[in-house]
Design a protein that fits this description.
single chain; alpha/beta; 3 domains; seven-stranded mixed beta sheet; five-stranded antiparallel beta sheet; 19% strand; globular; transcription; DNA-directed RNA polymerase subunit beta-RNA polymerase subunit beta-Transcriptase subunit beta; DNA-directed RNA polymerase
């Protein structure tokens, strides 16, 4: 294997192989038409979302199981939407059956072996995808390919060619820079970027690494035309594709999540949802416990009833963030201000481990406009005095203080942290008041999507 924690190449090369495969091109084209038909209607958008999820599997080089396709068709019928609107979903359902993922994988690997005679690392979502790929290559070719998985690729370099089936828009989800000596990106030509962009490679938090000199990256674009089946060619096309077609913005079509970095979770209503691995989510257990949780590659979501999938904090302002910070800090500041014998506080806090708990310092700490004691021992003392004792809550307040003091933390990161705490508290309040949880939760400028998992 050519995997190494050290890089032994100096100039990486990115080779975009843009596919022209009529059934897949038409699927993307019709899916975009379906998106424009949604017209801000939630039920229509839910239909679009299901077919977008199917596209995500296809673009990841993953086959679509028959039961997933049939469940999607069943959902469309249950919506009882107009026949006019359902014309595009019907076409998409038919097109999926003409898209041969095995053919795409096989033809793409053959193209690479035409130019590479050494070992090639193939990025795989899991062992099942690797088994599929092995079944599609010739026996003599198997000696020249090996799998690499997400956990490996994020921590190591590939000192040789790396083969990835995924749109370049997803690369920042899992690929560090530089990742390999030569990277082959297999994607439909309609969704591919025409040139390398500065923000192609990002950290996991979407902070730009900052490629100062992109001229050090060698790039090329090649086309790969894959012949469609006779059955597809002979079908009656409702609307011909206008050639050439390419979308300027693929966010709605591709989404921000890929199957490469996600796990499928079945919802109570039969819908398929996608959870990113190694990302923190607000969850509700079967026992009603609200907590932050990270799901790994092998998690089965046992014991989890609800997951807050998305939180939209785009409407939050900088002042909203600061107000929420101060509001959260009041949990330990107010007990200091309200204590009926303030002259006893220095002695009480010193007994709890404080180092500089004099009268003036305590007065400053309790003000709404200040942040928190800078010393860990002093901060722990005032938190303990306010009966804040759980490790998770203590660490939350320490993180909150760091965020308030730091100028290097982006506003977006601060918004995300604040939004999670607001939504988490709102959910806990609803549960304590025995209020039902709906699919959407709106608190001020925040909107959150919540889905209920199928009984597990």
């Amino acid at each position: 294997m050519l995997v190494s924690p050290l890089c032994d190449f100096t100039k990486p090369t990115i080779k975009f192989i843009n596919l022209r495969y009529a059934p897949l091109d038409e699927y993307i084209y019709v899916l975009d038409r379906l998106r424009t038909d949604c017209d801000q209607d939630d039920l229509r958008y839910s239909v679009f979302k299901r077919f977008k999820q199917l596209l995500s599997r296809l673009l990841s080089g993953l086959p679509i199981e028959d039961d997933k396709l049939e469940d999607t068709l069943k959902f469309c019928k249950q919506t009882r939407l107009s026949h006019q609107f359902l014309a595009n979903p019907k076409t998409l359902y038919q097109l999926v059956q003409f898209i041969e993922i095995n053919k795409i994988i096989r033809k793409s690997i053959t193209r690479i072996f035409e130019s590479e005679i050494k070992e090639v690392a193939i990025f795989c979502k899991d062992i099942e995808q690797w088994k599929l790929i092995c079944s599609l290559v010739d026996e003599h070719e198997r000696d020249f390919i090996y799998p690499v998985y997400r956990a490996t690729i994020r921590k190591n370099y590939i000192n040789g060619p790396l083969f990835i089936i995924a749109p370049s828009y997803w690369i920042s989800d899992f690929l560090k820079y530089p990742s390999a000596e030569t990277v082959y990106i297999i994607q439909p030509s309609s969704v591919g970027i025409p040139e390398l962009k500065m923000d192609l490679f990002k950290c996991n938090t979407e902070i730009d690494i900052g490629l100062v000199n992109t001229s050090m990256i060698s790039t090329s674009i090649n086309k790969l035309i894959i012949e469609a089946s006779d059955d597809y060619k002979n079908r009656v096309k409702i609307t011909p594709i206008v050639e050439p077609f390419s979308f300027k913005s693929m966010k709605e079509i591709l989404g921000t999540l890929s199957h490469i970095t996600c796990k499928e979770v079945l919802g109570q209503d039969g819908s398929v949802n996608y959870i990113q691995t190694n990302k923190t989510y607000i969850t509700i257990s079967n026992d009603g416990l609200v907590e932050n949780k990270i799901f790994g590659e092998n998690d089965n979501f046992h014991g989890t009833s609800y997951i807050v999938q998305n939180i939209d904090y785009s409407k939050m302002s900088h002042e909203d963030v600061n107000q929420e910070y101060r509001k959260q800090m009041e949990k330990w500041k107010k007990p200091l201000r309200d204590y009926y014998r303030p002259y006893e506080l220095p002695h009480l806090l010193k007994d709890l481990g404080a180092k500089i708990a004099n009268e003036q310092n305590i007065k400053n700490w309790s003000k709404t406009v200040t942040i928190a004691p800078k010393g860990r021992a002093d901060f722990l003392a005032v938190l303990t005095f306010a009966n804040i004792k759980s490790e998770e809550e203590i660490e939350t307040f320490f993180k909150l203080a760091r965020n308030m003091r730091s100028n290097s933390i982006s506003l977006g990161h601060k918004k995300a942290d604040v939004a999670k705490e607001i939504i988490k508290k709102a959910i806990m309040s609803k549960l304590s008041n025995r209020e039902p949880l709906k699919n959407e939760l709106s608190i001020g400028n925040l909107n959150a999507e919540i889905f209920m998992l199928k009984n597990n």
